Amino acid sequence: MEHSSYRRRRNQQKRTKIWPVIAILTVLGFGWFWFQNSRYQSLLTQAVDPNNAKTQNLVVKKGETLSEIAKSLKEANLVIDEDALKKYMKENGLDRKIVAGRFMLSPNLTIPEIAEHLTDSEKSQLALTVPEGYTIQDIDQKLTDLEAIQSGEFIKAVDDFKDYDKYPFLDADKQQNLTHPLEGFLFPDTYYLDSQNFQSADLIQLMLNNFQKRLGDELQQQPERGWQEIITMASIVEKEVKTEKDIPIVAGVLWKRIDEGWLLGADATMLYLKKDRSIDQEDLKEDTPYNTRLNKGLPPGPICNPGLKSILATLHPEESPYYFYLTKPGSGEVVYARTNDEHNLNKARYLY
Questions:
Q1: In a domain, 172, yes or no
Q2: What percent of the chain clears pLDDT 70, i.e. is strictly above it?
Q3: Are residues 287 and 268 in the same domain?
Q4: Whole-model pTM above 0.90?
């Protein structure tokens, strides 16, 4: 009995010592929670720079996570604390309402104000990136994927284009007869569009104006071959080779073949109007204006919208002793040849 009574006293003593510790930890816990919540509430009302209304561009890509967006905002010095932004958006169910596009934000905005921008489609601009080498069909498909248009609307706007006289580099007589007028002159770039009031005709004008701006002084010097021919060749170069050092060399090879009455022999031209983007033996035999293995000269028009490097290389090609070239599968390395025999050896070595 005495032993049992001793144990009870010992347990009571232990409990007596533990309770103050628990009480202190509880107070500290509540204090820390109060401090963190107070700090969080304070962050919601603070702006990085309340007196700075200068806007910056923030692009939110489709599929980008809240953490990635918050990090971009912090790096752009648009929020003080990225965790506070994430917490606010999650607590208010806004993390699932973020829209893709470009937003104009300034350092004088608070976190709730930034969150409002990021979830308001009317405050976003649609970001359309047109890579070098895209065709009008590709652009139409991308706009469709972005839900800016119904499939085919951009192509129809190109077909309906009438303002050829506004752009001296366009040739209405030649272009209106093509499958896709304006192909080649819709400059590849990133365009920011009104997502609520998008019109394909407005984008076409933006792209043509950009072509005019990016070519600059070159457009003041009418090329001997004509812009339709230059852009047609540039579009072939764009599709045939990607390595920067080879672009002017390949342009020189192709112009030389044209000038000396050779067949151009560019497979890329045959792919232009093919939906499956592949060539078989039957395609090689088909006598179409785009089969440059059978018909001399350039095809009727551009086969894509080339970038500036391909256009400038076509205007200023590099002379070389070569008449043939091929691109190694995988690496993209270009291998040149002076004669058909050399070219056949290269094909046997690298393609078969």
A1: no
A2: 88
A3: yes
A4: no
